[in-house]
Amino acid sequence: MSTRTVIRGGLVITASDEVHADVLIEDGRVAALAVPGTQEWGADRVIDATGKYVIPGGVDAHTHMELPFGGTFASDTFETGTRAAAWGGTTTIVDFAVQSVGHSLREGLDAWHAKAEGNCAIDYGFHMIVSDVNQDTLKEMDLLVEEGVTSFKQFMAYPGVFYSDDGQILRAMQRSAENGGLIMMHAENGIAIDVLVEQALARGETDPRYHGEVRKALLEAEATHRAIRLAQVAGAPLYVVHVSAMEAVAELARARDEGLNVFGETCPQYLFLSTDNLAEPDFEGAKYVCSTPLRPREHQAQLWKGLRTNDLQVVSTDHCPFCFVGQKELGRGDFSKIPNGMPGVENRMDLLHQAVVDGHLSRRRWIEIACATPARMFGMYPKKGTIAPGSDADIVIYDPGAEQVISAETHHMNVDYSAYEGKRTTGRVETVLSRGEVVINEREYTGRAGHGTYTPRSTCQYLN
Question: What is the arrangement of strands in the sheet containing 262-266, beginning at the earlier edge strand?
């Protein structure tokens, strides 16, 4: 059965254009755009977007549903997490499959396919966390690229868990230089941080705020610099995840000025929160423990600047929620045992629209960093990330004037607190289409688990 939907009268905003247009959707894809009122398209459904924005669905290229960490699991499943994403105007996530030490990449990828398949409300892809670099792993990287898993995450942090040393990183980078894959780097000097953690605990410094103090900005900058130079030696591109420190931004800017294929991502928590939150009394600061950590407020201006100058290209969430009760509380009396991660997949599009309202970003830049660039970076454009003939009809009707208050009482993420509790924002998701199917209809969830399909990806489109 062929189905046709028309979205009438809205302001269509993409990374490159803002134009009043009607949008015709046929069989899950955008079929045409036209000047309002000039085409009498027959349709099964007409959506009136007068006075609203019509934007591409968000692409969140950094989520961790059901991630095992520190003896527990991220509290959002693929079902609850993708439903919450849809509520927040995100229609594609790229999550991280995990290779465990001593196991193959394939085993890790198969395990994550099993978690996600049939459970997602929106479309999804996978990056691969590489924890054990050896000859077999390197060969498997080639196979994964061929089947649409084209990005590989490595960690300079978490010794004994995900950590790779410089030699392992170099080998993986050399392989990605050959097979077209993109190395994503968690850039923190984990060896040095572990020393500082041990020393802080020995001094009796156990509260959550010390998590931020031991994971020093200079150790993020040092690792970022080292990752850049290793990538340069390997002749490979590099994508640095969750950049939080101004010193790390400076390293990225310098590398890009040298003409290197180096890219940077930041997250809403670094743009809107700070070490003030980590220092909240009565262990409340544990809610804000993530790595890289929140920084002092003065770092925020440099992150916003980096987004405006394109030294940072993407805003993802690093959505990795742990409930305060029973999970974050594992670290009472020892901040190093607090599970690292924060919820945010539902809040990203709204927070970035607030940044437009506040004058940090233009509307098109909002769409660029939240939709188009992540889709291009990870090989999904123009299927995802834009509104153009042939694109998937992943479309959000967005009310730019609606006001809301972010709260755990009203969010849809499976976590017992909000990192932005009480924050007032202007702008709200009204209706969401995923491949032409309405999954949020005027603030009512109409989607279903299993609608979302796995999306194989091509290689980074900034390197083609």
Answer: 58-63, 90-98, 123-129, 151-155, 182-186, 238-240, 262-266, 314-315
Cα angle, residue 122 at apex, residues 266 and 406 outer, rounded to 5°: 55
Q: Which residues pair with 399 in a beta bridge?
A: 428
HSE-up of 19 (CA within 13 Å, CB side)?
A: 13
DSSP class per residue in 257-308: HTT--EEEEE-HHHHH--HHHHT-TTTGGGGG--SSPP--TTHHHHHHHHHH
SS3 label, residue 441: coil
How far are the Cα atoms of 186, 271, 298, 364 from residue 301, in angstroms, in the given order? Answer: 22, 8, 6, 20
Neighbours of 135 (CB within 10 A): 8
Q: Is 157 exposed, middle or buried (0-12, 13-18, 19+ CB in 10 A)?
A: buried
Q: What is the pLDDT at residue 1?
A: 60
Half-sphere exposure of 335 (CA within 13 A, CB side): 34
Q: Please determine, for residue 397, whether its predicted confidence score (pLDDT) is greater than 70.
A: yes
Residue 295 φ/ψ, nearest 5 degrees: -115, 165
Contact 303, 246 (CB under 8 A): yes
Residue 303, both tokens: 């992150």
Mean of pLDDT values over 44-67: 98
pLDDT in tens, 444-455: 999 999 999 999
Please count the CA atoms within 13 angstroms of the CA of 249 that sit on its side-chain side.
Answer: 23
DSSP annotation of 116 reads H
Q: What does the alpha-carbon distance between residue 244 and residue 217 come to, in Å, rounded to a whole number?
A: 8
pLDDT given for residue 329 in this prediction: 97
